[in-house]
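Complex 346.
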Amino acid sequence: MRESLGTGLRSKRLFDGNQARSASPTTESGYAPIVSSALPKPLRGVPHPIPYQGSKRQLAHYIVSLFPAGTVRLVEPFAGSAAVSLAAGHMKRVRRWTINDLHRPLISLWTEIVREPEEISDQYEKVWRAQIGDERAHYDRVRSRFNAHHRPADFLYLLARCVKAAIRYNARGEFNNSPDNRRLGALPSTMRRHIVGASALLKGKCSLSSMDYREVLESARPGDLVYMDPPYQGVVDTHNHRYRHGIAFDEFTAALESLRRRSIPFIVSYDGRTGSKRYGRSLPASLGLTHVEVPAGRSTQATLLGRDDSTFESLYLSPEIPVDLRHLRHGPRMSVETASLFAESA
Ligand SMILES: C[S@@+](CC[C@H](N)C(=O)[O-])C[C@H]1O[C@@H](n2cnc3c(N)ncnc32)[C@H](O)[C@@H]1O
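Predicted structure with S-adenosylmethionine bound:
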């Protein structure tokens, strides 16, 4: 049984009379999200060559399982390490990809990984081996070289070695994150396996680009599935260089409205919450999306303080995404309360 949940308005109607049973606080958008109770686990065996802070590796399996049957192309305008694209390839859920990210060095690295996997693996191995015995100074040399020449293998080494795999630039646009001195970065043999695996999934089947997400969305067609994971709200201001580019809330919601008008299915990762503390703005109910909250573990701070503040990530699904009720109940399971609400609505 595949059945569409319909619009967010339907969710609203479903939940309005049941607020007491909903596990989650109502959001500023005016309706409560559906809360999934099981912690999604990353799929084993999916190649993942680019270490990346904010990667959706943990949730990718869950996200891909929501794709409508018959989806041919996955469009990822904010691809980063492309965790969802790789999971979709591994799960054989799509046959073509559009992988885009405004950050040009990242797309240059992806281009090498997809098209020249052995060559970029050899280059990574050379950079990696040259660090032995002189690790700290080597990192600084590679960082200066990357800032001068933007070579993909240097970027990969920096990401593999830097603190929290976080891309950080100073005001002059120079990569300035420090090395994590506890680790040397993935072994060349491990990195090669991930690179060759990613290339095997994507080579000849993906277009790679580095442009603003809105341009990419213009090329989306019904039958595609667009997955969007924009930079986290609150860390995109000019004083925080975790990402070099940000997006404006109003422009983003206008872009989503345009997808809605064109009936293009999409899934957005947007806000989230830890316990009852919500971070980021919710997407407006007027978009008519279904809002699902997926557990993403406990926050480190809450664990340290001994509090049970579970973290949830939000997914917003456009109405073209058919929600398989059995899947929601038995795949990544829904809470008992939510499942009973689904039963009432079925
Ligand atoms: C949260 S990360 C995506 C992480 C990704 N889902 C993964 O699994 O690795 C957001 C990405 O959006 C990119 N970005 C920021 N502004 C953008 C824009 N205006 N257009 C396209 N990409 C943008 C950033 O460079 C960053 O890689």
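Residues 52, 54-56, 77-78, 80-81, 83, 101-103, 212-213, 229-231, 243, 245, 247 surround S-adenosylmethionine (CB under 6 Å).
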